[in-house]
Amino acid sequence: MPEWWTYSLSDFLLFSARTYYRMIERHNAAVWPLQMVTLGLGLGIAALLRRPGTRQGRLISLTLAVLWSWVAAGFVWARYAAINWAAVYLGWLLVIEVLLLVYAGLRGRLAFRWRRDAAGSLGIALLLTAVVLYPMLAPAQGRGWRQAEVFGIAPDPTVVATVGLLLLSESGPQWSLLVTPVLWCLISGVTLLALGSLEGWVLLPAALLSVGAAGLRGRPRP
Amino acid sequence: MLRGMAAGAALALLRPVSALASTDPLTRPIPSTGERLPLVGLGSWITFNVGDDAELRNECAAVMAAFFREGGRLIDSSPMYGSSQSVIGYGLAKLRRPSRLFSADKVWTSSGGAGPAQIEESRTRWGVPRFDLLQVHNLLAWEEHLPTLLAMKAEGRLRYVGITTSEGRRHDELEQVMAKRPLDFIQISYNVLDREVERRILPLAQDRGMAVIVNRPFRQGDLIRQVEKSPLPPFALEIGSATWADFLLKFIISHPAVTCAIPATSQVSHVVENMRAAGGPLPDAAMRGRMVAYVERL
Prior knowledge:
The structure holds 2 protein chains of 2 kinds.
Chain A: H1 17-31, H2 34-48, H3 54-77, H4 87-106, H5 118-140, H6 155-167, H7 175-195, H8 200-218
Chain B: H1 2-14, E1 27-29, E2 36-38, H2 54-69, E3 74-76, H3 84-94, E4 102-107, H4 115-126, E5 131-136, H5 142-154, E6 158-164, H6 171-180, E7 185-189, H7 201-208, E8 211-215, H8 222-227, H9 244-253, E9 260-261, H10 268-277, H11 285-297
Parallel strand pairs in B: 3-4, 4-5, 5-6, 6-7, 7-8, 8-9
Antiparallel strand pairs in B: 1-2
Helix pairs in contact in B: 1-2, 2-3, 2-10, 3-4, 6-7, 9-10
C-alpha cells in the first residue's frame, strides 16, 4: 500500500454506523426468537465449566462449531457481505475455526475448567461479557434492544465468548484455535472504533489481553 | 420520526424528476467535447452502501430524486463501494431512468484481464446501457486498464475515460499518466485546506484539456465538523453562502480547472443544499484568498 501513513481508520470504512446497526436489527428480527436459544446455550456452556472432562469439552467444542457455522452462513455471508466485500473472506476465516473446533472436539483435545489464575479470570470475564453484557451495549448507547448483539447470533459476542473459553482450556494455550478469533477481534474492533461504537473497546482489549494471558499461561514455570 | 422520514422520502419520489429547480446549477464544459456538466454531482462512497435494507434504499432513491430535481447530472460510484452500485441502480429504476444522468463509475481490480467482466457487472448493477465515464480507481493497474477503456471509447461503448486518486496520494504518478495518456477526466481530492493540487495537477489538467472531478470535498464530513463550531465570515454573504457546506463547496467549484465536485450524502436536505451551492454567485480569486485565510485561522 503506497503512502500507507496517509491512511486513517475511516479510510477503510465502507458503510455507516446506521447501516451496520440496522443490519443487526433486521437480522435479529429475521431469526427471533432464536436469540433465546443461543443465550441459553451460552449460559449452559458457562454452567458446564464446573464439570470438566472429555465429554464436556466435546460438547462445548461442537456447540461452538455449530454456532460459528451459523454465524458465518447466516450473518457474515448472508448479510454482512452485502455491505462489506471483505466479509466474503472473513466468512472463510470463520469456517477454518469451525473445522478446528470440530477436529479438537472429536479428538477430545479440549476440556474447559473454571480457574482462578490470570488466564482463567480473563476467560470467565470475557465469556460473561460476551453472553450477558454484550447485548446490553446497544441499549446503553441509545440504539435500543432490537439492535442488541447476541451470543450465537452476531459474530462479535460469539467470537469474544470463544476467546474466553479458549483461555479456560485445561490443556494450556490453544494457539491454533486462538488465531481466527483474535484476528476477528482486531478487524472488527478497528471497524467499530471507526464507526464510533463502544463495542470496539471490548473487542480490541479482548484480542490483546487474551494473547498476553495465553502467553503467560504457556510460559514454563520454575 | 422514522415514519416521518419514510413518508418524506416517498413524497420526494412522487415528484417528477423533470420538474427541475427554479434556478439550474452553473455548469462547466468537459474540455474534450464541450459537453456541459453541473458543477456539483453526487458521490456514493459509504452513503449509498446500504445493502438490501429497503428503507435505506428508498432514502437513497429520494436523495437521487432531489439531486436530479435540483438539476444534478453526474453520479459517481465504484465496485469498491459495496452495494452502492446496486442501490444507484435501484434508485434509477425507481426514477424511471432520468435522461439527464451522467453515469460515472470505475474499474477497480489489480488484474487487467478481470477489468471487462467487472465493468460489465457494474453496468448491470446500474442498469444503464453504457457508462458515460469510466475511471481507473486509485491508479490501480492503470497500465492494463487504460487500453481497455480507450478501446471501449473508440468502439462507442463508453463516452469518456478517466483516472482517480484520493487524499493527495500518488500525485507524481498521476502527473505522469496525465502527461502521457489521452484522458478526458481526472478525479482528485481538493478542498479549502488540502490545496496541493493547485500547484501542478490542476494547471496540468487545464493544459492537457482534462475535466476534473473533486472527491471528498468535506473530508468525509470531518471538515464541516471542524469548522462548524465557528461562525461563517461576514463576507460569506457576498457569495450567497449561508452555510458552511455551501461556503466550502463554492471554494472548490470556483477553481476554473474544476468541472464538478461530488459530495456524498444520505440526506435530501443536504443534497439540495449542495446543489444550490452551484447556483452562484461564485467567489473570484481575491475572495478565494480570503476564504483560505479565514478557514486556516480557525
